[in-house]
Design a protein that fits this description.
The complex is a heterodimer of chains A (506) and B (126). With 506 residues, chain A is mainly α. Helices cover 78% and strands 2% of the residues of chain A. Chain A has a two-stranded antiparallel ribbon with strand order 1-2. The chains are: A mainly alpha (506), B mainly alpha (126). Chains A and B meet through helix 6 and helix 7 of A and helix 2, helix 3, helix 4 and helix 5 of B.
Chain lengths: 506, 126
């Protein structure tokens, strides 16, 4: 008999799918919104329970789907790390829904709203499935579901501009999943397995014989490239600012905060459960990630400085933050990967806060999007102003906030390395922090300084109350501060969870 | 030379699949015409399916439909075929979604050239 909590991972995925399928039955967006919110909250609570049990017993269990034994059947595996990430996905999903509620109402036609929530539910299900799956082909299928659902929520605004942005996004995503699929097929041909534990066993035994090193390098390279394309690593980021900057608030929050991370989570599982981090370093796959991660950090920040449109600025900042994560992966040590996962969590709570706040600020100032016309909006909506300021400061890396802690952990893991990489990582961390400050500080000053635009909209703007936004902004702010102050327990969970992922040494 | 030819013939499916993958990939990336983009996406995915199906095929064996003899050595490997089926479902749904998007843009701008669409959209914004 299974302990009851081992049913949670499957139950969470299934719950999202069921509620997603039910969405078209609703006539109004309101009921659909409430059901989606409920499902996200229930999933967050369930993930929390799962985290409690897996952390208490320090285990990683395998849940056999359909009762077919190991080499043939499909499996879900969950441990501390997966539970923590699922908790992040579900809770940030719920808070992003709250934060973007009014924009959904403004941006999407009423009869289409249930369909929008259908896509959000599928997206949620696929992100959880990518976190929990123990089977690479299932991983591929959910990558595609994730792609389609995220394209659909970009185009939900239904203007020609967002459709063009969606096409760009779709094309790049398809290139990425094509690369991933051919890598997966090659790996299957070499090893004859699809489940991660069996794959790892075969891969490591192949490596010990020294045969098939070139095919393995190609496989690792193709799969990593495929996932990096989808996660908007530097040279493949061009679609992101348009897709994330043009979508409705909830979409931008979820896309920037979570969807990019879901792919990276799969990449981390690939590195630890299929290959091993030592093997990845030996094949030099992570060197590429390191170089492009660093270029991305610098380049995207420079683009963000020149950007006037507030949401596109935040989107470029996401590209830079993704660069941090890939730099952590590229350092190729376990400590650095822990820092990268910490950065995933920090960015997942900070970026939705910034997107929701930016949208609230533009809501009170006549739906303007350019920073110039948003001057003074924080005075009309002080909570949004405080939230934006806090989020911006966290991105720059001010102590006591989440962003500082993740940069600190990354720098710490870089110091432990004894190679030229150490200096490259530290220098680029310092430089990109300065660059972050160069666009977040002016933006923060702009929203607080009075202007004519502010006076014009002040009366009207003060009338617009938005309680759901306040709840979400407040919770996000608490999370940002928590990730900054209480990093030790979280990074301990990440560290022991990562050890449970597998990866017997070479 | 004959060695080379022999290995080309022995690996004809793999070689063909890789060439098709390249063609599909490059065209999906660079093609301006959106309909051609969709076609090249299908070429790319089909090449992967060809590769996969050829890997599961074993000369002289039959499809794994059990009629009487329950002997695994009679049949080809069924797993790649199953994967191909799943992959086809995925690529069909992606194509449908892509076509729907292109149709929307065509209704609005009357062209399927992506560059022209971007230019028209920019003009509209001004």
């Amino acid at each position: 008999m299974l302990p009851w909590y081992q049913n949670i991972p499957f139950a969470c995925i299934f719950l999202c799918m069921i509620s997603g399928i039910m969405m078209p039955l609703f006539k109004s967006g309101k009921a659909a919104f409430h059901l989606t919110l409920c499902v996200s909250l229930i999933n967050a609570i369930l993930a929390g329970v799962l985290l409690y049990f897996t952390a208490k017993e320090s285990i990683r269990f395998v849940y056999v789907m359909g009762h077919f034994p190991a080499p043939w059947g499909n499996e879900i595996a969950a441990g501390k790390l997966e539970a923590l990430l699922a908790l992040m996905f579900s809770s940030v999903m719920a808070l992003s829904l709250l934060g973007g509620k009014s924009s959904i109402h403004d941006d999407i036609l009423e009869p289409k709203q249930p369909l929008y929530f259908l896509m959000l539910n599928l997206l949620h299900a696929s992100m959880l499935a990518l976190t929990y799956t123990n089977d690479l082909f299932t991983g591929y299928v959910f990558i595609e579901i994730n792609t389609l659902a995220s394209c659909a929520i970009v185009m939900a605004r239904d203007t020609a501009k967002t459709i063009a942005a969606t096409i760009r996004y779709l094309v790049v995503s398809l290139l990425g999943s094509g690369l991933f699929l051919i890598g997966l097929v090659l790996l299957y041909c070499i090893t004859g397995h699809l489940l991660m534990p069996n794959l790892q066993e075969k891969v490591l035994s192949l490596v010990s014989t020294g045969k098939y090193m070139e095919p393995l390098t190609i496989v690792a390279g193709l799969m990593t490239a495929g996932i990096s394309v989808k996660a908007a690593l530097f040279p493949f980021h061009a679609w992101l600012p348009f897709a994330h900057g043009g979508a409705t608030t909830t979409s931008s929050s979820v896309l920037s905060g979570l969807v990019l991370k879901a792919y990276i989570v799969l990449l981390i599982k690939l590195f630890f459960s299929v290959f091993s981090i030592e093997l990845v370093s030996a094949l030099h796959v992570n060197d590429i990630l390191f170089v492009f991660g660093i270029i991305g950090m610098i380049y995207a920040s420079i683009k963000a400085i020149r950007e006037e449109h507030i949401k596109r600025m935040l989107a470029y900042s996401s590209v830079a933050q993704i660069g941090y994560i890939f730099m952590g992966l590229g350092l190729g040590t376990k400590v650095a990967v822990i820092a990268a996962i910490y950065q995933i969590i920090v960015h997942a709570v900070t970026k939705p806060l910034l997107f929701a706040s930016a949208s609230r600020l533009s809501e009170v100032q006549g739906h303007e999007k350019s920073l110039y016309r948003l001057r003074g909006s924080a005075r009309t909506a002080p909570l949004a102003g405080i939230a934006f300021t806090l989020g911006g400061l966290s991105m720059i890396g001010i102590p006591l906030l989440g962003g500082f802690m993740s940069k600190f952990l990354l720098a710490e893991s870089a110091v432990l390395l004894a190679s030229p990489r150490q200096w490259a990582a530290l220098l680029s961390l310092a430089l990109s922090s300065v660059l972050n400050a160069l666009y977040y500080i002016p933006a923060i000053i702009a929203i607080w300084s009075p202007s004519d635009f502010m006076l014009k909209y002040q009366e009207e703007g003060k009338q617009k109350k938005n309680i759901t936004y306040s709840v979400s902004a407040f919770s996000f702010m608490v999370l940002v501060v928590l990730t900054g102050c209480a990093s030790t327990p979280v990074s301990e969970i990440i560290s022991s969870g990562l050890s449970l992922l597998g990866g017997a040494s070479l | 030379m004959s060695d080379f030819l022999q290995s080309v013939i022995a690996y004809r499916f793999e070689i063909g699949a890789v060439i098709l993958f390249g063609i599909g990939f490059i065209n999906l990336l660079l093609q301006k015409n959106l309909i051609k983009k969709i076609i090249s996406f299908n070429v790319m995915d089909s090449s992967i399916f060809l590769f996969l199906a050829s890997q599961g095929f074993i000369e002289g064996r039959i499809a794994p439909i059990i009629t009487g003899a329950n002997d695994a050595s009679l049949y080809i490997n069924p797993i790649p075929t199953g994967l191909v089926l799943t992959g086809i479902v995925v690529s069909v749904s992606v194509s449908a979604f892509f076509l729907a998007l292109v149709q929307r843009l065509y209704k609005k701008y009357g062209t399927v050239n992506f560059d022209e669409i971007i230019m028209l959209a920019k003009k509209e914004a001004e």
